[in-house]
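Entry:
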Amino acid sequence: MFQKENMFRLSTLIIFVSFWSTALYAAGGEDAGSPLMDFIWKVVNVVVLAAIIYKFAKKPVAAALGLSAESAKKDLDEARNAEEKIIADLSEMRSKISGLEKETLEMVESAKKDAKDAKARIVKEGKLEIQRMKQQASFALKQEQRKAEDDLRRWIADESVKLAEGTLKKEINQNEQKKLVKNFVDQLNQSEGAT
């Protein structure tokens, strides 16, 4: 309370002196007063003005500067935290990228191995298929050969039978003819003998 009273008195005194000095300076006119007194009054006016500004602007300026400093400190802390977070995120991303690179290399190696295995399997299956096709062709060829042999045997048998029939017919015809000739000759002989 005492301090507020003193400050009020001081500010009242400063205002009074300021107005009084201005009034005295203005009353002096152009020819009144020496340049030294003018200079002194100007200095006093500037000092009074600075004191008034200091008195009334000290707290708001200090508060503004304090807020500005706190705000700057807060912004700096936030920037540091953001930088740390970014560095941590960057480190995490690098480790993820490294992991992805390893995973990609593993996938490529796995794909190469799978392709190699698939190639070996396809070649093996191809060889087995060729072998199976050869066996089927060989079996089909044997079947056709047996069929051809059977057909040939039947044809030979049929032709043999036909030939035998023809030969038998000839023999029968010759025997028949001989018999007929003999019978005819016998009949002729008998008829000659009877005559």
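The chain is about 95% helix and 0% strand.
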